[in-house]
Amino acid sequence: MVTAKVETAGPLILVVGDVMIDRYIFGDTTRISPEAPVPVVRAGAEEIRAGGAANVAANVAALGVACRLLTICGDDGAAVELNGLMARQGVTLDCVTDKGQRTTEKIRLISGVQQIARIDHDCTVTDAARATLAARFEALLDGVGAVIFSDYAKGVLTALPELLAIAAQRGVATFVDPKPVDPARYRGAFLLKPNMAEFQALFGSCPPDRIVDRARSALDEMGLDHMLITRGAKGILLVSRDGEVVDRPTQALEVFDVTGAGDTIIAALVVGLVQGLSMATAIDQANIAASIAVSRRGTYVVTRGDLDERLYRREHFMTKLVPLAMLCDRIARARETGARVVFTNGCFDVLHAGHVRLLAEAKRQGDILIVGLNSDASVRRLKGAPRPVNALADRAEVISGLAAVDHVVVFEDDTPLALIQALRPDVLVKGGDYTPDSIVGADVVRQSGGRVMTVPLLPGRSTTATLGALGR
């Protein structure tokens, strides 16, 4: 049985398959066309993202493993754009240029949060280009820890059975994300990853309580080691030839866009395996990565920072509490997209309406609200014993429950000056019991071009007053 494992020289994942450009055009809709009953969209911003096998490769690289992408492109502008995208993602692109052909492109027209239309430009792959790809494939297998085949039925993987046989002869584990409804194409793969609709199209419909049995039969019939079935809101199901069954519910907290979620799953799964994780643990990692991807608009590349942060939060009861180093990385990436960062701080020992209004108003000043939270020792020095009433873990969990708050970070000092120096927020917010000039870190923020503001207090609401009332 072929197994994926960490190479002593460092893991390398080879991704082979159909690539595409996902182009997004964003605009506003205010009227209906006089020519036909369709909305008129005034085009605004435009974004391009890597799709198909290129999205798989981008996710592999972003999760911290060296990746090479082998594919076929046309000799057009979309191929040039793809080359640039892969270079920025740190993916080594090995592209067979198919002269006179075009690269697959999907154009999505978005108004607000609604997709209005999608226009597809599909490629046509020649036999000569496929033959060149097959020759390059065998030459590229040296030092490869695993191969991911991303099949979108665009023609790059028409000869998939031959490619699987070459990899098997070299002892390289192969992972296939299938599209064409032909079970024989996937014979001998290490792992097949269909979604539920693909599984039923390949192996026949069956009731939910018979899926495991049907998958086991398919493993025997096709010489597969593992079947990983993605089931949307029902999560991920793994059935292995050795009898192992792993059933994981979805980890998604919110679903904004499922585009590319399958690419994320197979990328994160294989990354975990070549880094030495067990199959069950790698599936957990893939499940969490997918939950991150579907919470973002469009094709989203999940990074190692994204994944580490979500894993950290899961270990800390899904609070928004993150270490400073992780937070700095997150903020740096958010700023690359133009996000404005807001910071406020406090003990937040006994949460009341005044706190909630302060945080809501702070969030309105930007895109990301960070709350600096005094440690228990810091609160005790500032407020005296027996404060805090609520320990740090409880205070962090309560603050994390507020929709306005994006991140919580702890500081041990009496003031948050070191945090502010590290984060350099665009807006610094405190309550109205401060003047702007008396706020710790105000000079740091202003020197960086940011602004400082205060929010009026809510009369009669304070932790001290609340605790006093409880003591009466």
From TrEMBL:
Organism superkingdom: Bacteria
GO cellular component, one term: cytosol
InterPro entries attached to this UniProt entry: Bifunc_HldE, Carboh/pur_kinase_PfkB_CS, Cyt_trans-like, PfkB_dom, RfaE_dom_I, RfaE_dom_II, Ribokinase-like, Rossmann-like_a/b/a_fold
Residues annotated as the enzyme's active site: D263
Pathway this chain belongs to: Bacterial outer membrane biogenesis; LPS core biosynthesis; Nucleotide-sugar biosynthesis; ADP-L-glycero-beta-D-manno-heptose biosynthesis; ADP-L-glycero-beta-D-manno-heptose from D-glycero-beta-D-manno-heptose 7-phosphate: step 3/4; Nucleotide-sugar biosynthesis; ADP-L-glycero-beta-D-manno-heptose biosynthesis; ADP-L-glycero-beta-D-manno-heptose from D-glycero-beta-D-manno-heptose 7-phosphate: step 1/4
Subunit field text: Homodimer.
Stated name of the protein: Bifunctional protein HldE
Gene behind the chain: rfaE2
